[in-house]
């Protein structure tokens, strides 16, 4: 039962990644593209966690944590650049 749920989750998260990639490429505005990039990172984290559950390995969870930290810093930097035009003041 758990294997079927994991396989369904893989398919759904893969579809979410494809839709986020579409919004990233065809977004009407820069802020929409930044939001799509952040959501793409969150979906990648979910995919890594699913791989970790499926393979029973802790390395995927550590990689997901690093990706979450980098995604947060990247999103903050992009938003700051979008608002002020400069990252470092």
TrEMBL record:
Keyword Ion transport attributed: yes
Keyword annotations: Antiport, Cell membrane, Ion transport, Membrane, Transmembrane, Transmembrane helix, Transport
Alphabetical list of InterPro entries matching this protein: MrpF/PhaF-like
One of the Pfam families matching this protein, by short name: MrpF_PhaF
Protein family per UniProt: Belongs to the CPA3 antiporters (TC 2.A.63) subunit F family.
Listed name of the protein: Multiple resistance and pH homeostasis protein F
Membrane-topology descriptor: Multi-pass membrane protein
UniProt GO cellular component terms: plasma membrane
Stretches that traverse the bilayer: 6-22, 34-53, 59-83
Gene Ontology terms, MF aspect: sodium:proton antiporter activity
KW Transmembrane helix (keyword) present: yes
Places the protein is found: Cell membrane
